Amino acid sequence: MWQQRVEVAPPYDFSHALERLALDPLTSVDIAQQKVIVPFYVQQIPAAVTVESIGTKDKPSFLVTAPYPERKNEIMERISHLFQWNTPLAPIHEHFQRTELQPLFAEYQGMPLILDFDLYFCLMKCLIHQQLHLKVAYCS
């Protein structure tokens, strides 16, 4: 196992992101500990990567813990992409302060758009949600 500390440009509100991730019962989220376990494959080997917030919204910092030290760069690249750590949110927030969406962006300042952990699972979820929605429509 290895650990790496990651600093991210503020603002970055991980607690809002965890609340959104917690809506999926298959995602292992601990809101009290500000931590999520991200499952994915590294070279066809399953890996569970823990991402824990150890900072604040105005001084975001994370601790990433994972197996396979020889795959550290690949894992960090994937985690950074999933959590949008390389996308500064301040310019986006500033832009929307001049629009009708200002109240929404003020309430959720620093909330990143976190990607689904697995594209195949995301596709399956979308198909299932469409089918459930269609069934609900037929009952109305």
Question: Could you characterize what this model shows?
Answer:
- By secondary structure, this protein is of the alpha+beta class.
- Helix content is 38%, strand content 23%.
- It has one domain (2-115): TATA-Binding Protein (2-Layer Sandwich).
- The protein has five helices and five strands.
- The chain has a five-stranded antiparallel β-sheet, with helices on one face.
- Strand 2 (28-30) and strand 3 form a beta hairpin.
- The longest helix has 21 residues, at 119-139.
- The mean pLDDT is 88.
- This is 3-methyladenine DNA glycosylase/8-oxoguanine DNA glycosylase.
For the structure shown, list the relevant keywords.
140 residues; alpha+beta; TATA-Binding Protein; five-stranded antiparallel β-sheet; 5 helices; 5 strands; 23% strand; 3-methyladenine DNA glycosylase/8-oxoguanine DNA glycosylase
Brief summary:
The chain is of the alpha+beta class and 140 residues long.
CATH architecture: 2-Layer Sandwich
What is the third-level CATH name, the topology?
Answer: TATA-Binding Protein
Tally of alpha and pi helices:
5
Overall shape: globular
Q: Order the strands across the largest sheet as they lie in space.
A: 1-5-4-3-2
Largest sheet: 5 strands, antiparallel
Tell me roughly what share of residues is in helical segments.
25-40%
N-to-C SSE string, H for helix and E for strand = EHEEEEHHHH
Low-confidence segments: none
Number of structural domains: 1
Q: How many strand segments?
A: 5
Strand content bin: 15-25%
CATH class: Alpha Beta
Provide the structure class. Answer: alpha+beta
Mean pLDDT: 88
CATH homologous superfamily assignment: DNA-3-methyladenine glycosylase AlkA, N-terminal domain
Distance between the termini: 52 Å
Round the Cα radius of gyration to an integer and report it: 17 Å
